[in-house]
Amino acid sequence: MKYSVSTLNWPEAWPYKPEVSVEIEPDGKYLSLLWKVSEQTTKAEQAVLGGPVYEDSCVEIFIQPDPADPRYYNFEFNAAGKVAMACRTGRNDPEDAPLEVLRSIEVAPSLGREPFAEHAAGPWTLGIRIPVTALFKHHFDDWVGHGMKGNIYKCGDGLSTPHFVTWSPVGTEKPDYHRPEFFVPLGF
Predict the structure, then answer these.
(1) DSSP-based helix, strand, coil % in the chain, nearest 5
(2) What is the pLDDT of residue 175?
């Protein structure tokens, strides 16, 4: 299933909208994502797993695996494939993913895995395979048929042209992706 990440929720303050799409396919034990991004400049300075990748050119998917459970997972990736992830019920209560969980997520960045400073890089892609075991506070056998909710995002908080776009609208005064009340069914 292909998703266009093109909603500008805060156009007066952050009018820049890169071209972003992601194809998502649940494949039993894995959730496969293929991100395609075209933006003015790209940055991937965060070099460690679990770092603040949202400051870089960052793509994100937040998933609430069980609609009856308020916990959700934020999966965040920079253009070099570095991942940050936590299980939480909101912005201020993260339980960071263990390092072995972060290492279990497969990434294939078209711009390479090495950190780099902001520059005009041209379009880039990021292939990702997330094992169902990455949902470390839940116990699912596969990714299909659970009524999962969430949202899909692109941001670049620390870029020379900061931007914040979403797949499904977020009705807040300023950018805040950690708002499960705006999660919608993901369709897989």
Answers:
(1) 10, 40, 50
(2) 96
